[in-house]
Design brief:
7 helices, 20% strand, single chain, alpha/beta, 257 residues, five-stranded parallel β-sheet, Rossmann fold, 32% helix, elongated
Length: 257
């Protein structure tokens, strides 16, 4: 059972996904229709999850105010006293919901510190209780074997490589087929800058048969490829985060020249 059910119009899926990810990062468990499994009856699953959820967030947009499905889900949530209406566009709300206090996430930049999003967390928390942030396990860097003095004396000191000044490159985009057949797939857009100098984020999507160790090994391969192409000499994985809902590991990587 999930704490939160998100109701939205299909055309607003990108916004719904961004809100879902932000809520998940805040520690909320939630359900929305991309989690439907093959073979499940759409209406049956929607009704079950709508009834089991402690809170229903309805996203109002120019499209959803015209959707009978969204309005029916909102009316059912209102009847069960667990509706949290959120406007993602400047719209005229359906008559039945005009008198309800509605949060406006128009202009939201995706930040958890955005005032309207903080208010959303506050309103949701009053219904489901304060979300508990998940503990994040950070994998330790593999220890390198220290060569003996004899080995060092036998090996000549390699010439020091000059640092490349070429721009950072990206890893080629992989589609969903690579996730199914190879077990893992990268972020799709290569390494994503975090705003901190020489710090980047790489995302590894995993299939159901891949464990944390497999995802970590794939991340190390991608990191080392990127490190060589970008002219870095070393790296350190400073953080790891796993998304239970969307099935990916995020690795924050600090590079050194």
């Amino acid at each position: 059972m999930s704490d939160i059910f998100i109701s939205y119009k299909r055309e607003d899926q990108d916004t719904a996904r961004a809100i879902a990810e932000a809520l998940e990062q805040a520690g909320c468990s939630l359900w929305w229709d991309p989690q439907l499994r093959s073979g499940e009856r759409f209406d049956d699953v929607i009704e079950r999850e709508l009834n089991l959820a402690k809170c229903v967030i309805v996203l109002w947009s120019r499209r959803s105010v015209q959707s009978q499905y969204v309005k029916d889900e909102a009316a059912h949530a209102l009847k069960l006293k667990k509706l949290v209406p959120v406007a993602i566009e400047e719209v005229e709300l359906p008559l039945r919901f005009e008198g309800l206090q509605t949060l406006f996430l128009t202009g939201w930049n995706g930040s958890a510190s955005f005032p309207a999003f903080e208010k959303l967390l506050e309103d949701v928390g009053r219904i489901i209780g304060k979300p508990k942030k998940r503990e994040i396990k950070v994998p330790q860097k593999p220890k390198l074997a220290v060569p003996s003095e004899a080995e060092i004396s036998r090996k000549p000191t390699p010439p020091q490589k000059s640092v490349s000044t070429k721009p950072l490159t990206t890893i080629p985009k992989r589609n969903w087929l690579s996730k199914v057949f190879s077990g893992t797939a990268t972020y799709g857009h290569g390494f994503k800058a975090t705003g901190v100098l020489d710090e980047y984020l790489v995302r590894i999507y995993v299939s159901a048969v891949v464990d944390e160790k497999g995802a970590y090994q794939r991340a190390v391969e991608e990191i080392e490829t990127f490190m060589k192409s970008a002219g870095y000499a070393a790296y350190e994985i400073t953080n790891q985060k796993y998304s239970y809902i969307f099935g990916y590991y995020d690795y924050t990587v600090k590079f050194n020249r």
